[in-house]
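#onboarding

Welcome to the new folks! Below is a worked example of what a typical request in this channel looks like: someone posts a single protein sequence, and someone else replies with the predicted structure as tokens. Don't worry about understanding the tokens yet, we'll cover that in week two.

Example request:
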Amino acid sequence: MTGARLLYAGAETTAVTVYESDLPGVGKKHEIELGDGSRLVIVTHNDGRREVFRRETADADSEKLFELPDGLARQVGTILEGAYFQPVRSGDVETLLGGDTLLEWVEIDAGSPLAGRTLGDADLRAETGASVVAIERGDGVIPTPGGETTVEPGDTLVVVGSRADCEAFASRATGE
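Example response:
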């Protein structure tokens, strides 16, 4: 089993250790260390089905909590991710997609140099390397906005790029 240390940013930054292992003929297993010493175990089968277990200690037997088919598991994942609703807005919301690639939410306030400009005019991808993949506006979402889309105060831009690209994007959005 290999371990990867992942950092998730939010109101508080928490270091989480995730262990990944191949299950030949079955799929993959991920074990996530929880703060109380127990582990959440997720088995992703080759057919997409997910089984979720809880293990009290690293060497204890696992207790199956539930099983989800592929489509439902993906929908639950996006809800947990916050794609539908971010209950607490913090300064930095980001998701590590793999390697150094992040999905990050950047809020635009009235004083932002981007407010009132189109994405094409701002030329953010060329300037920062990060791409806007969606805009949360009010109760709606603008998926894959084009260069003609105007950024408005109160928008939350969903951005993908390397950590450095996302940091450059956030700095550009705040004018810092």
